[in-house]
Specification:
Elements (H helix, E strand, L loop, with lengths): L1 H17 L7 H8 L4 E4 L5 E8 L2 E8 L2 E9 L8 H10 L6 E4 L7 E4 L9 E6 L9 E6 H7 L4
Antiparallel strand pairs: 1-2, 2-3, 3-4, 4-8, 5-6, 6-7, 7-8
Length: 155
């Protein structure tokens, strides 16, 4: 019985580590990345942005009502393009064990959707920008579907 409980607890721990980073709370995010380097107020009620550092990346997380709603990843140098391996790594962190699907239907930039082939099943949307609009900085963003609908003008 003890062996079964230990195995179940270990499985729960591994599963929770494989699940999405989107939707995590501020304490969960800070357990992963440490305390925020900076905190930025937002105009919308219930929103707050926090900047973290993870290895050679800055991560800008927008929290809505205390849960991650949007995450942006940038190389610390602000110049290095993302490799396919890095993009796949960040996608896998938010996959919850489900496959991301690359899509060309949403924008001119590389876009991935999580949750199925139809909009009704999507849970999240990710996009890679070799140069973020108005900058020369490469960035990779992952949004909840609700945020993507606002930001990317998805119907």
């Amino acid at each position: 019985m003890l062996r079964t409980l230990t195995l179940a607890a270990l499985l729960a721990l591994v599963t929770s580590r494989a699940n999405a980073r989107l939707w995590e709370t501020i304490p969960q995010t800070e357990a992963r990345y440490g305390h925020a380097l900076q905190t930025f107020p937002c105009d919308a009620p219930g929103e707050e942005e926090r900047k973290y550092r993870y290895k050679d990346f800055y991560i800008l997380v927008t929290f809505l009502d205390g849960h991650s709603d949007e995450e942006w990843y940038f190389h610390v140098d602000g110049k290095t393009p993302f490799s396919d391996h890095e993009i796949q790594f960040f996608l896998s962190m938010t996959s919850g064990g489900k496959p991301w699907q690359k899509s060309s239907d949403v924008s001119d930039e590389p876009v991935w959707t999580l949750g199925g082939s139809s909009l009704e099943n999507w849970k999240a949307v990710a996009a890679y920008y070799p140069k973020l609009p108005g900058t020369t900085i490469p960035g990779f963003g992952i949004y909840t579907l609700a945020r993507a609908k606002k930001v990317m003008k998805i119907p």
